């Protein structure tokens, strides 16, 4: 009898979970967050990042609406990028300006741009030679990202920015270099992909090691 009652309770609980899951309650909450996040975006981000997030704003802003970028970063990454900004660049810290709810709604809005989940082939351990990486960087990256990763307006992100290096992992940097970002000037670099540069995995790891070494300078 006891086993029957336990089994009945389990079925009831499963039924309740199933009903809630199919009631649209969670989807409704997410839709509200996205709609609220769109308002936050239009008020604070549109001028630089553009109406569609492609970086087409009247001021210089990175393209944040592309599948390579959204597939390589987590919601926490997006949250940190917005909350802490990038010192010394046009990207201010929005932590003092926006509430926690606004920040999370903005992340929900940006995440809603993602239409596919790309599975990147990345080395399990990213270990490179920074000295060799500097040579590779100067050959392939300097034109857009500037000397020692200082960045160039409307050309390439400042890679030496302390907050960029703090909140961006080696894996994410590796993916950016290897696979690029579609619909931007950042093309793929990994050998075998359709990019002007055809770098081996080790070459890319060396460049990552060099960029990471700039954190200490």
Describe the structure.
The structure is a single chain. This protein is mainly α and 217 residues long. The protein is 54% helix and 0% strand. The protein is globular. The termini are far apart. The model has no long low-confidence stretch (mean pLDDT 88).
Keywords:
about 220 residues, mainly alpha, 11 helices, globular
> What is the number of helices?
11
**β-sheet strand percentage:** under 5%
Low-pLDDT stretches: none
End-to-end Cα distance, whole Å, is 72 Å
| Shape, principal axes of CA atoms | globular
The helix/strand order is HHHHHHHHHHH
The helix/strand class is mainly alpha
Helical content (DSSP H or I, runs of 4+):
40-55%
Rg over CA atoms: 21 Å
Number of E-state strands: 0
**Average pLDDT figure:** 88
Question: Major β-sheet, in short?
Answer: none
Give a quick summary of the entry.
The chain is 54% helix and 0% strand. It has helices at residues 2-22, 25-44, 46-49, 67-72, 75-84, 100-111, 130-140, 142-145, 162-167, 170-179, 201-213.
């Amino acid at each position: 009898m006891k086993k029957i009652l336990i089994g009945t309770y389990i079925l009831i609980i499963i039924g309740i979970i199933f009903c809630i899951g199919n009631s649209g309650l969670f989807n409704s909450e997410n839709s509200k967050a996205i709609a609220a996040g769109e308002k936050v975006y239009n008020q604070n981000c549109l001028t630089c990042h553009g109406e569609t997030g492609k970086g087409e704003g009247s001021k210089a802003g990175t393209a944040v609406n592309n599948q390579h970028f959204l597939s390589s970063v987590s919601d926490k990454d997006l949250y940190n990028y917005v909350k802490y900004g990038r010192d010394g660049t046009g990207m201010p810290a929005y932590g003092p300006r926006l509430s926690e709810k606004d920040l999370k709604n903005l992340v929900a809005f940006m995440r809603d741009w993602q239409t596919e989940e790309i599975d990147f082939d990345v080395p399990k351990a990213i270990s490179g030679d920074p000295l060799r990486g500097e040579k590779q960087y100067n050959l392939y990256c300097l034109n857009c990202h500037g000397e020692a990763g200082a960045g160039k307006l409307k050309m390439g992100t400042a890679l030496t920015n302390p907050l960029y290096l703090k909140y961006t992992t080696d894996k994410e940097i590796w993916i950016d270099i290897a696979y690029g970002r579609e619909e931007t000037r950042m093309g793929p670099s990994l050998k075998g992909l359709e990019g002007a540069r055809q770098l081996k995995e080790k070459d890319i790891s060396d460049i990552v090691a060099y960029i990471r070494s700039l954190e200490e300078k």
